[in-house]
Amino acid sequence: MFYIEDHNGRHRLLKYTPQHMHCGATFWGPITPQGTGFLAVQSVSGTMPDFRIAATGVVLDLDKSITIVKKLKLTGFPFKIFKNTSFIKGMFNSQLEVAKFEGAAIRTVSGIRGQIKKALRTPVGAFRATFEDKLLMSDIVFVRTWYPVSIPTFYNPVTSLLKPAGEKNSWSGMKTTGQLRHERGIKVKQNKDSLYKPIVREKRHFNKLHIPKALQKALPFKNKPKNLEKKGKTPKDQWRPAVIREPHEKKISALLSALSTVNNYKIKKAKVKHREHLKEYLKVKQKEDEQKFKRQKEAKKKIYRILGQREKKRQKSSLKGCSKGEKST
């Protein structure tokens, strides 16, 4: 049995060995010290041209109580829905099974999380569960479980291969079902449930969003639903009659449309020109602002320099005055 050890110490069953990773393999066999080299051979009966080494490894430990588990998803369907509480059926077969899974986390395919609460009397295996949100009758509920896999207790030591070289070929081991099918040309019977079928899903129609009136009052105006009345059909007497123009009127309308086209083109051209002028003006304005800012900065520097020099002179003169006063005393 091939398995991989998860971060929480669980030995998860593998259907196939991983492509670029190591994995563990457990089998029932003789007591072997830890660290012993291990070699798996495809076939030991006779010398075959397609002989090859199947696997190499090392013995990690001896443990009779090792448990390998595989993932098992149990599915159920709601048959009664009360707001966030629902009654689920079809997942378990008895009240005892439900009791074992009380408090287990469940989920719907749409992603609503929930928890198993208590078993119901009828139907058998049904239970009460609470969810984050209200379910739909079309939702599928599932629980993730881990089922222990028993390791086959079979060990057949072959001692006849210790014989001399000439007598080794006389022994032939048990053939696999694959080898027997290949020799006799027997095809594997296909399971109809295992075949790929086109999935046809019905289009789901959801009910319109209903907002209670009390909540509508609390909402801001932009989020309030605007109940606009649909425009009714205009009666035939109010229909606009079709206008049939005279040849002279057709010429006038054609001339006006041509003039409006020319005018629109001129306006468009003027707008483009105005944008270009505006860009140039903004560039010039930006340069002038930069120069102005530079001049103001230099002027401020000069002013602050003069003010600093004056402050120094004033401090010196005040210190001199103090020293003369001290001498006179």
From TrEMBL:
Residues 286-329 are annotated as: Disordered. Pfam families: RIBIOP_C (PF04950). SMART domains: DUF663 (SM01362). Signal peptide: none annotated. GO terms for molecular function: GTP binding; GTPase activity; U3 snoRNA binding. It comes from the Eukaryota. Residues 1-149 form the Ribosome biogenesis protein BMS1/TSR1 C-terminal domain. Residues 294-304 have a biased composition (Basic residues). GO terms for cellular component: 90S preribosome. One of its GO terms (biological process) is endonucleolytic cleavage of tricistronic rRNA transcript (SSU-rRNA, 5.8S rRNA, LSU-rRNA). This is BMS1 protein. The gene is Bms1_1.
